[in-house]
């Protein structure tokens, strides 16, 4: 079994209650990656719904999550033939960590779009150098080892020279490809379950300004637009405003067939 499938599994404790054992391999510094927490909460929400796909999800991040035991509460707000909406909360030590609402439905894998905007000009994965994290020192972040990242040459240049001119002329617009680490067993059983992690896996757009520290997400909303074909996901992320310690990040994901499969938007703080 792929590490991701095991790391995001939840066990029932009773009606609407689940336990999870948060995998330390998904830590960014001392905090769990937000996309990983969303993936765990999605697993609980889908256990409560008769529909197989999380089509619209919105989360507020209240405090950093830690590795280890966590408890989840999931309650159905409305159950319907087309959409079932589930409220989910994850906490540790009696304190809330993330709260969210997930709308579930069933997407048709053979649906043909009536309209779809052209995908971003992301170079093929074989033209995108792989990001190889430096060997981890004690206390370092293991999360980069969970995701294979391939960054477009222009993105590499923006990250490599981030902050060298004080931020002037820097464009917070990145693209490349991501996939679950092959060393961890790859994609797992269902590529749809990976999407909440994937929308939060690429480097933060704020890194073009030289900010390499953790940039905590305050709120993130993402939409599933299609069932992804197995394989790497192409991404493009960009910010529209970086001001007063706050920034937004909009990200789109396409599968290997060029189909738009997910969109996200988040508001976050610049790391200190």
Automatic annotation (TrEMBL):
Acyl-CoA thioesterase-like C-terminal domain mapped to chain residues: 139-268
Top-level taxon: Bacteria
Region (Disordered): 114-146
SUPFAM superfamilies, alphabetized: Thioesterase/thiol ester dehydrase-isomerase
Annotated ranges, domain Acyl-CoA thioesterase-like N-terminal HotDog: 28-102
Name the UniProt record assigns to this protein: Thioesterase family protein
Organism, scientific name: Nocardiopsis rhodophaea
Source lineage: Bacteria, Bacillati, Actinomycetota, Actinomycetes, Streptosporangiales
């Amino acid at each position: 079994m792929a590490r991701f499938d095991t790391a995001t599994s939840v066990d029932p404790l009773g009606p609407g209650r689940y336990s999870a054992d948060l995998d330390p391999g998904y830590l960014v510094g001392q905090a769990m990656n937000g996309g990983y927490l969303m993936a765990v909460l999605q697993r609980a929400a889908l256990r409560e719904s008769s529909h197989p796909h999380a089509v619209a999800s919105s989360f507020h991040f209240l405090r950093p999550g830690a590795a280890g035991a966590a408890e989840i509460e999931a309650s159905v707000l409305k159950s319907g033939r087309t959409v079932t909406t589930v409220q989910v909360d994850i906490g540790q030590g009696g304190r809330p960590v993330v709260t969210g609402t997930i709308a579930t439905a069933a997407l048709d894998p053979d649906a043909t779009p009536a309209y779809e905007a052209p995908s971003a000009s992301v170079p093929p994965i074989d033209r995108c150098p792989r990001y190889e994290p430096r060997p981890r020192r004690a206390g370092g972040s293991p999360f980069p080892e969970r995701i294979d990242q391939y960054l477009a040459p222009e993105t590499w240049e923006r990250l490599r020279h981030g902050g060298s001119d004080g931020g002037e002329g820097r464009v917070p617009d990145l693209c490349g490809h991501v996939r679950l680490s092959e060393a961890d067993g790859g994609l797992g059983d269902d590529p749809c379950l990976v999407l909440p992690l994937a929308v939060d896996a690429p480097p933060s757009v704020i890194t073009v300004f030289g900010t390499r520290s953790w940039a905590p997400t305050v709120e993130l909303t993402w939409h599933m637009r299609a069932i992804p074909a197995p394989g790497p996901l192409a991404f493009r992320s960009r910010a529209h405003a970086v001001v007063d310690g706050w920034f937004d990040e909009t990200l789109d994901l396409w599968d290997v067939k060029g189909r738009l499969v997910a969109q996200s938007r988040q508001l976050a703080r610049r790391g200190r």
